[in-house]
Amino acid sequence: MKILLVITKAEIGGAQAFVLNLARGLKKRGNDVVVAAGEGDFLNEELKKEATIAGYRSSIGRGMRSEKIRTYNFPQNRLTDHRLNHSWHNLENIVDGNLDNVLEEVNKSLI
Asked: What does residue 76 show for φ and ψ, rounded to 5 degrees?
C-alpha cells in the first residue's frame, strides 16, 4: 500500500517526530511511505537513511546466537563449526595453524 503523509513544517518537533515514528512503523509493515514536508526535506532524508541501514543489517546480520558460524571454546579446548555441525577437540593446535582436519571437513561439505 502506498501512503503519503503531509506536514506543513519539516523542523523536528513533537508532531514531526510523531509523523516520523508513524512512517517508520508503516514501512516496517511493508507499506511504501512518502513524507511530504512544507520546508526542507529532513523527514524523507531520515527515512532514506533508515532504509539504507536496514539493507546493511539484513546482509550483515545482527550477531545473534543463531547466526553463529563458529564457536571457539577455550576452556573445553573445542572448535565448533555450526554450519557443518561438527566439533574438533584440539583448539590449541587449530589456533597454532594446524587446520588440516578443519579444511578436510569443509571440503567434504562442499562436495
From this structure: -100, 5
What is this structure's pTM?
0.43
CA distance linking residue 47 with residue 29, whole number of Å: 14
- Dump pLDDT digits (tens) for 51-84: 777 666 666 666 666 667 888 899 999 999 888 8
Where do the structural domains in the chain lie, given as residue ranges? Answer: 2-60, 68-110
How many C-beta neighbours within 10 Å does residue 21 have? Answer: 10
Distance CA 24, CA 22 (A): 5
* Grid cell 519539516 in the structure block, residue: 10
Scored b (16 or more CB within 10 A) or e, 62-76 reads eeeeeeeeeeeeeee
